[in-house]
Amino acid sequence: MSIVSHLLDHQAVRISLDPPFTWTSGIKAPVYCDNRLMTSFPEARNEIVDGFVNKIQELGLEPEAIGGTATAGISWASFVAQRLNLPMFYVRSKPKGHGAGKQVEGFVPENSKILIVEDLISTGGSSIKSAEACQREFNAEVLGIMAIFTYELTVAEKNFTESGLNAYPLATFPALLSEMKTRGDISEAQEQIVLKFREDPKVWEETL
Question: Of 52, 140, 179, 208, which is least packed with CB atoms within 10 Å of its CB?
Fold first, then answer.
């Protein structure tokens, strides 16, 4: 079974046009993804971890440590690091306001080659900030950002290009829509509305 199928079967990804969802960032959207759910289903969880490991091997990446973004990426980074027998760390959303003021938690040697694991890529902002924290705190060489799913927003592509970072998602928005059409979960008209959102969320919201 494909990862997209697992996401749909367990309702980790949902579509709603009226009313739309409101993301944490405040963006109004016709689609919402909650991959935290996927840790609760062993078969799906194992296939996702297999997907990460296979992707790492296919790309010829050789990380020396695996990092997870707080909070949703932490469990996935742990699973992947355990499978690859590598050190694992996590990155806070912002530096601690006490102690050493670190943003990266865990021991990682200077100049390490790392991969950062996200559950989801929306605008790419949190992924890029996590990578920058690793570069700042231990001069990491960030091999890329891995994620279960990406909305493939135009703004995310722009942000990753400007940052010089590579994103490696396991499941994409077009694959999701294709599977939903096959299942009869979305009409042609609904698909077009959702695709317009992907092009420009702000313009899409103005049409509501």
Answer: 208
In sequence order, what E strands does 23-64 have? 28-29, 31-33
Please give the Cα distance from 59 to 82 (Å, whole number).
19
Give CA–CA dist 102/92, Å, rounded: 8
**Cα-Cα-Cα-Cα dihedral sign, residues 86, 90, 95, 96:** negative
| pLDDT, position 99 | 66
Q: What pTM does this model have?
A: 0.93
Evaluate the omega torsion of the peptide bond into residue 71 and state whether it is cis, within 30 degrees of 0.
Answer: yes
Whole-number Å distance between alpha carbons of 90 and 105: 5
Number of neighbours of residue 40 by Cβ within 10 angstroms? 9
**The two three-digit tokens of residue 87, written as one number:** 């050190």
